[in-house]
Design goal:
Helix content is 25%, strand content 28%. It is built from 6 helices and 10 strands; from the N terminus they run βαββββββααααββαβ. The strands form 2 sheets. Strands 1, 2, 3, 4, 5, 6 and 7 form a 7-stranded mixed sheet that branches. It has a 3-stranded antiparallel sheet with strand order 8-9-10, with helices on one face.
Length: 281
């Protein structure tokens, strides 16, 4: 057992009949629900997961294509990956592509009838892998980059959307999970505060009104001159929508200079109903 992940078996060759047999009749005691820590060649893992957490094995991979094979009434899908190496290569269109090698590769198998069960086989020589930093890092000697599990990122986003916690609160709660082993720090919990802050910006951007929405509001205000009384777009978007007569009555009431109470009768309420809409991006 490796920090919650279990080696299902060791083999240098995995035949299709054997793959189908494992996926249709799995040994549940050897099933993992967390990714392994830098698995070695010839190791086979069986993951029971509803997310792509199994991909976060602390290597960097390049997708090398897929293939589907029909087996009886089911379909076996194969996902191929090759290990990523430092550096980039120039393509004819001028774009840079990461460098990959088939000296170390992995293949993931799943059946269409049960996509949550993933069989992963590592092949080749794991020692060819050279750790690299995050692609956006500006440090001369950046720390090794490891991918955070998608389920962890979703949990962080849910906490952010609740609006009840700050980025620091979410980060502290994530790293205080005592069940996360040292090998899975930054994988099964938040990597750092910066990562959580980036997710806060992502959530805010998704919830912010689009430029098209703001433009449509301004266009509506132009065509309904006198009804949309005011539109403010910075720092927050707000609009005041009311009939001119309503605005006039409210302004008159506000201008009343008296120490006596001004009676407002129920029959006046519809006339004084000023609709104010506030949008907080």
């Amino acid at each position: 057992m490796d920090s919650g992940s279990i080696v299902y078996m060791h083999t240098d060759v995995l035949h299709q009949t054997e793959i189908v047999d494992i996926l249709t009749k799995p040994e549940t005691s050897c099933t993992s629900n967390v990714p392994p820590y830098k698995p070695k060649a010839n190791e086979v893992y069986l993951f029971q997961t509803g997310a792509d957490d199994w991909k976060c094995d602390q290597y960097l991979w390049i997708n090398n294509g897929t293939k589907s094979v029909t087996i009886g009434n089911d379909v076996l899908k194969k996902h191929f990956y090759k290990i990523r190496l430092p550096g980039t290569t120039d393509k004819t269109n001028g774009r840079k592509r990461p460098v990959g090698s088939l000296q170390f590769k992995k293949t993931a198998y799943s059946l269409k009838s049960n996509k949550s069960l993933i069989l992963v086989h590592y092949e080749g020589d794991e020692t060819v892998y050279v750790p690299v930093g995050h692609g956006n890092s500006k440090k001369s000697d950046p720390p090794e980059y490891t991918r955070t599990a998608p389920s962890v990122l979703r949990k962080i986003e849910q906490d952010i959307r609740s609006g009840e916690k700050t980025a620091m609160d979410v980060y502290r709660e994530s790293i205080s999970n005592g069940s996360v082993s040292g090998e899975h720090q930054g994988v099964l919990n938040a990597r750092n505060v910066k990562q959580v802050e980036n997710l806060v910006r992502k959530v805010n951007e998704e919830e912010r009104l689009s430029k098209d929405d703001i433009y449509n509001l301004l266009l509506l205000a132009y065509h309904m001159d006198g009804f949309i009384h005011e539109v403010t777009v910075f720092p927050d978007l707000s609009s005041i929508i009311a009939l001119p007569e309503m605005i006039s009555i409210v302004n008159q009431l506000l201008d009343v200079n008296t120490e006596d109470d001004v009676p407002l009768f129920s029959s006046m309420i519809p006339l004084l109903s000023v609709e104010t809409s506030l949008f907080h991006p």
